[in-house]
Every structure is written in structure tokens, then in C-alpha cells.
């Protein structure tokens, strides 16, 4: 007689294995605005995520309202009722006198048509008490245009020392423009009123375009390159690459301390960086092999990554970058959840976390950044990868940079108002 096959024979006495569930990580909640609370917040994150290394002293510079960006913005209460409101660098900030004076001026009866055309007015601070003004409005009538010229004359006669320039900005399709978050595919036209498109960055000798992104508080940002230099101690023959560079201020400020300095950003904004070779390109997995292919790009490199809005790096960027063997990798992140994942990804590629440097880049605001310094695991401390070579990057076959899709580019044009 043929025995009936029992599929589960010999398993009756077995007990199902208990699956050990990992305890859920506690959410830290929203970022506090107080510096001491920020310190506790970061320490708790490092403890919960088992982040190696000691947190170094916080980089924090007191910031004044006179050296920060301000904005007058239109808010719609109803379909027919709109009001103008002041927005500062942080909640409770006291507006400087120049901002209050201009806010009072545009509310006067003889500028009524111009006032109704306003979407927003940006006060872009230089960091030393002066400003450049960018007015985003829609001038539908001749009266509104004439009143805008009256406003320009007022600025030139009454505030020529504090206001360095004023330009009209138009965005298509129509939307409120934010230098930190330009909408993909939008077209920005700058009609020149008076003054230059470039604003000085305090007394540094550097400049930024009035429609380019900078932190709202300028004083901490101005001192940031020095803090970065103190963290990495570059040698004279080292080279520097700033990714997601924006104005290129970090690279331009560090240029005297490196043999060669480069910056890369995808946005088409005109910039003045005489000591930096600026590249317009997206930062993706195809960028780094092409960048490090040139003969003049041999050497020991420091790569500075500052992805916008605390976003994660694009897919496969970390393994591709690690394969190039840079001497140092700096990651500046404002999102600790993303940063914890990026640290693990760098470890898998043989780069260990050397320093954790907190940056209170916008004091008084529920926001801070952390600068993570990664170096190759030369001693095999991670225990999972072969020892990283410390030899300099070698030349590879030269390739051209990847062209961007037209829909992903923010276009900027300039026109002089007649």
C-alpha cells in the first residue's frame, strides 16, 4: 500500500518562531526655536538613532532684524478683500525702520493703484543694514505703472543710502515667487528699475543676485565658510566642489584656501564668482563620473553637499560619489530623519562619520542645520568593506555633462524698463 504523503510531517511539535519586533522609534516632534531646546533635540536624535561620534560645539551667531530679509506680502481675506502683511526672519522679529517707512509709504492714497497691483515686495538684506528691493506685481493699467515710477523716485530720493536697487519681477505662470523654492518650469523676468542686479554680501567683497536664494538671516551665513574651514583644515593642494551651490558664496569664500574651487547648481541665475569655476548641471549619479574625468581634476577633493529643503540625495549619488574616492565629504542637512538614513548609506560605501557640527543658521526660527563630515574608513573600522585607498583621484576619459530637461529649468531673463 502506498503511503499518503504528508506535507507537514515532522512539524507537529514545533512551535512557531517568535518574530522580534523592533521597538518603534519615538518621534521627536517639531523643531523648537530656542537654542537650548535645539541642543536637547539634536542630542535626543543622536541617542535614538545611535549616531556615532561626539556632537561638536554649536555654530551660532546673533542676528539682527536689520541684517535679515523681510517681505511685504498680499493676503486674500475674501475674493475682493486683500491686505498687506509684514513677514520677518522669525516669529516676533521687530521690523527695522526702513521696512516700516516703505510699508507706510505704499499705503498712501497717491499709490493706491500700485498698491493693489502688488503680490509681494522682497527686502533682500546685504548683511550690513542695506537692502535691495524686488517688487512682484502685475501692472494692468497706465495709472499703476505711473505710480510704480513714483515709488521708485521715492526710494531714490528718500532712501538712497539704505536701498541699493529696486527691480520689478514678473513670474509666468503667475505665482508668488520664493527664492528658496522656485517652481520648475516657471519663467522669471526682471525689469530693471534702478541699481544693479547684484547685492554685496556685507564687507566680504562677494555678491549675490537679487533673485537668488540666501538664508533670511545673513550674519550666520556670512561666517559659515570660516566654520567649515576650521572643521576640515584643508591643505594647499586640496580642491573643493560645492554642490547645490546657489550663489556660490561658500565656494567663493573658500577659494583662497584651495588649489582649485568648483561649484554646481541647476538653476539658470547669473552669478559673479571670479575665483570659482561654476557649472550649470543637476547633481545626479551621472554628474560625478563626468566631473572627475578631466585631467585638471586629479588630486584630493572635498565635496560639499547642501541639498535644498533637507531632501535626500538623488538615487545612487552616494555610491557613485564614494567610488570617486574624495578625501572628505561634507553633508549639510536640515532634516534629521533623512540625515540618519544618509549616514547609513555612507557607512555602507566605506565612509565613516568623523564630525557632527550643528549650525543655528537662522536664529529664533524652528529650523537648524547639521554639518556631517565623512572620511574614508582607512583603518577598516566599519568592518564591512575593504580599506579605502587614500590615493588621489586619477584622470578618466573625458565626457560632456548631461543636459537637463527644459521643463526642469527655471528661466531668468532681464529687461530694462523704459
From TrEMBL:
Biased composition (Basic and acidic residues): 18-27
Ranges where the record places region Disordered: 1-32
Domain of life: Bacteria
Name this protein carries in UniProt: Uncharacterized protein
Organism this protein belongs to: Hallerella succinigenes
